[in-house]
Structures are given as structure tokens and as C-alpha cells.
Amino acid sequence: MADPTKPRASFAPWDRRELPGSFSVEETARRVGNYKWAETKLFEVLGGWIATVPELDIKLRLGTHCYKHAWHAELWHKRLPELREMNPARLTVPANDALVRFVDAMTEPEDASLTIEKLVGVYRVYIPHFISAYTYHLNNTSEITDMPTIRSLKFILQDEFEDWRDGEMLIQSLLETPDHVDRAAAHQAKLEKLMLEAGGIAGHGSIGINTQAPQGALS
Amino acid sequence: MALTVTPDTYNFVAFDTAYTARIAERMATQLGLDDIDILLAINENSSLTRIDVTVTDALITIAPHSGALEDTRRPRQQSELNTTITIARGMLRARDRLRGGFADAPADAELTLPQAAAWDTYIMGRIAHMDIVLNKQAWVYNFRNRHGFSDAVDAVFEKLWNCESTTWAELSSLSANTVSVTA
Amino acid sequence: MKKFMPVEELARDERFNQITQADRMADGRNALIGEAEKSRKSNRLTPARPDASEAARALMHGIFVGEIQALEGAGRTCWDFTTGEEAPFELKLDMARQAWDEARHVEISLKLSDWMGSEIGQYAENTVLFQAACSNDPVLRLAGVNRALEGLAIDVFTTMKEFGEIAGDPYLEFCEDWMLADEVTHVKMGSDWLRKITENDPERRKKALEFQGIVDKMFSYGGSRSDSEESSFAIARRFRELAGFTEDENDHIADLGMQALNERKAQLREKQAAVTN
Q1: Does the beta carbon of C4 lie under 8 angstroms from any beta carbon of chain A?
Q2: Shortest alpha-carbon distance between residue A52 and chain C (Å)
Q3: C121 touching chain A per CB within 8 A
Q4: Which of A133, A171, C183, C227 is placed for a possible disulfide with A206 were both Cys, Cβ 3.0 to 4.6 Å?
């Protein structure tokens, strides 16, 4: 029988969590607000596109993914007041104007013939940037003080990886000719350039390094 | 012998009498019914899929409701496939009664739902074996609805579907036994 | 991508053939009057009907395309209205959740259609659900989609669940029961949001309920749904109450159904008389 009076170490030998983290409460709230804005834009457009894609399997996938990203937005919405932001709408903003331009360009395709462009925008550009921004956040925040954010990030990342894989497979299934490959690549390049300008989901520094493009690089 | 299709013109559906007659003539020949008068009286007032069949020594009357000949994708338009299947169903039922060991079967209106489903399975199986495209699963489902949902019921379905020749006595007894085992 | 999509632009592959409610109502054939009326004691969709399997298959296809339109409607609500200004964030979260639920319902309907022996696009798709339900006002859309359309789904699923129970079909009964649980949730969402958004705006609430009445009557499909045995399916009062409909509201829907049935019968008599004369 264990001795109830015997002192034990406060942190078990296998618990190697560290106290320091890269983000203050304010910086965390700023990032979380950016995440919520970006996830909201994503679930909105996925919902809107459902009626515009003729491929039945893709229509259904978009419906499923629409909810997952809405749930991510909800998790961030609920996290904001815990980070001293009692008016979540105040921080629910895009990281910068360039990200707004990216979202506008990503959500532009509408015609039933543009499913490749729709999926490329989400699954080859936007979601990979979520994965990188979330991974950077997960690996750099305090493993003790910011555990609630870490828990949400882990749930969300699991969804993002699964959705990315679903989307990539759907894209591959649609690419039937070299022309389709060119279309996908051209749209990806166009959007990736806009994202370069934006610097990522949480702006420049989304993955810890300053991705600010040199002036004129995009012209 | 004569084959008559009525009506000549339609008010509620876009069906073609000459086209229907050509399909019916071909089917009558294929089923060996070109030696008896046949009246194909289409009930265009009803959108149901029912087919009423009456038989005398001199005349086969097949009265399908218009839904049985319709293209379900394009309401009120005629479907060649459904017209073919419906005519084949009606003619096979008539031939069974006249020459196929079903002389003692009750009139269509007197058949129980399981009996009708068993007979339909026997008929549709023969149509499928004529290489006419049809959805077998739809007839599995119909048979299960009337006899029960089990592997044993499915085995009876397969037996009837692949049966080349049977009689009313055998078929009705098989249906009754299947229902009683399921119940 | 633009806001507010017209029904004609709903994207479908070549298997689908879409028709409007006007196309459907132009059909002068019937199972309601004359000989058909005399030959049948009831038009209820039960296994006792001689054409039960075919009728159930056709209804299942109707459910399948209805679920696609419900999915599209819920998805469009996420897109068509500006978050915070035109529709609360939480309302949109509910609509996204509903989109996922409807996507599952389409999947379930596809599996059940296979089970029952029908194919995608085997029957014409009536686009009335999307057309009628997707108003440009979010409150009216809630009334149209979540209360009228999803309310109709409760009635239809209850009919199909009972059909499965009576026929002993284990899949049908099981699946319809699950879908029914979701639909009750969706109607409740609509009822709750309608109350909340129009709390201080009785005029808007009145307008929304009037719109729901119009859509409810349309969704009675010329009398397919009412308390009369002449209708294919009944008003599922118990499940509707769970979803937040009051007894008065259910009575009102039943009255609308009877009106639609009688109007349809009169219309059919007129069409048939025109031909006879």
C-alpha cells in the first residue's frame, strides 16, 4: 500500500513541460483573434460553395468541413474572454489588409466549372497556412500558463490535417489533364503570392520569422 | 392476331401510341403471344405505376397506369425502358395465367401482397434474363417488404428470380412458407 | 462569389433533372379524385399500399434531393449574411452545424437509396425547397428553412420510420430515427433564433411567421401532408412539439395542409373536366 504521507515531486519525472513561452497574454489574444477571423472566413465560404459545386462527394465534404472550421472559430471565440478580451468582436480582425485581399481572391471562384480553383485555394494554400501558424503557436507557447490554448490547438490541428488530406485527395481526383494541373498550379501561385504579402494567418511572424516581402517584390 | 393500343392521343402525358405499339408487338413475338389478341389500354388519368391484367381465352387486356410507362426523371414523358418492362410484365403475367401453370391463381385484385411480390419476382427475374436492364435490388427490396428482412428470405428471392418455370401452387406455397418462417 | 444564389444556379451533375413546383402542379393526373379516390381507402405511405416499395423509393429520392437543398440552404446562410451585422455569429455556427448534419443526411439517403434499389437522379428533383425557403432576410430564412422545411422533414421522417417499423426493415427504421433526432434539433434552433432575434420587433416576427405559413402550405405539396387519410403523410405532432411547435401551430399547419389538399382536388377536377369537355 502506498504511503499517503510520503512527499512526491510536484512534476513527475516524465513531465518535461517548461514554464517560459514566447507569447504574452496580449500577443496570444491578438493571434487568437486573427485565427477566429480567418476560421470564420473559411467556414463561411465553404458553406457558400456547397451550392456551387456539382460534384456530389465534394458538396458533402464541404458541408462537413464547413462545420469543423465553424467549431474552430467558436473555440477561439470562447478563448478570447479568457485572455482578458471581454468584447471578442474587437479582436476578431484580419491580421492585415493583405490577408483580406487574399481571402477576397480565394473566395472569388463561383462558377460550377471552377471546383479545382475553389479546392486549391482552401486545401493547397489556406489550410497549410493554418497548419503552420498553429504548429508554430503550439511549439512556442508556455506549456503551463497557456495550456487551454494548447488543448484547442491540438484538437484543431487534428482537424486541419484530416481536412487537408481530404482536400488534397479531392484535388488529385479532379486533375485529369495537364491543363488541369496548370490551372491548379497557376491559381495556387496567384494566391500564395497574396499570402506572402500577408505573412500568414496571423500576419508576419505567423511562423516566427519575418516573412515580409521586399518592397516591389510582388509587382 | 391483333394488338391494339389505346388511347390514340393523350391529354395529360406525352406518350406515343405507335411507338408503344411497336414495343408491344416486338415483345409479344418474343414471348410467343403473337397468336392471341392483345389490348393495351393505358390509363393516362392516373400517375400510379399499377398494371391491371385480365385474361380470357381470346383476349389479353393489359391496363397499365401511366406512371408505369413514364420516365421518372422527366415527368409525363414516356420511357422506352419502362414501357418495355411494363409490357413484358403484363404479358408474362398473362402468359403464366394462360399457359404457364397459373390458371388457378386468384384474380390480380385477390392476390395477397406477399403472393403478388413472389409472382413479380418470378416475372422480373425472367425479364432480367432477357437482358433488359433493370435494378434487381429494387425487387429484392419489394420481396423483403412482403416477406421479411433476413438471409433466409433473400435465399427464397434468389430461387424465384432464377426460376425458369414454376406453377401457382409451388409459388404460393413458397411465399406462404417464407412469410410464416419470418413471422 | 455573389451573395444570394438563384435556385436555377444550384450546381448538379448530369444525372439530375430539376423541375419546379409549377411543373409538378401542371400535372393533371392524380391519385386523389374520381376512380382513384374510390379504389383506395387511404393514400398514407404505409407498407399496406400495393405500390409501397415503389412509393417508398420515390419518397426516399425526394428526401435525398431535399437534404441536398437543405445542405445548400444552411451553407448559404453561412455565406449570404454578414457576421454580426446581418446575422449573429452564433446563428452562423448553428447553420454550419446544420450543414454538417444535412451532409450526413445526404449520405444516409444515398445508402438507403441503394438499399431500396434506386439510383441517383432516377426521379426528377423538385427545387421548391431551396426556392421557397431561402429568403434574403435571415429571419425569414430561419422561418422558411428551419421551421417550415425542417418541420416537413419531421413529418416525412416520422412516416418513413413507421414504414420501416411496420415492414420490419431494420436499416430504414434505424436511419430515420437518427435523422429525426437531428431535424428536431434544427427546428428547435430555428424556433429559438426566431424568438431571440425578433424579441423586440413584433412586426418582423409577424412577417416571419406569415412567410413560414406560405412556405408550409407550399410544402404540403398539393395536399401530400395533412391529417386526412387522403394525404401521403401526416403531421407528426409529438415530434413537432419536442421541436418547439405549439399545439396551435401544429393545428394551423394541419389546416394549411387540408386547404392545399382541397385546392389541389378542385384544380384536378377542373383539369380533368376541361379534357372531358
Answers
A1: no
A2: 5
A3: no
A4: A133
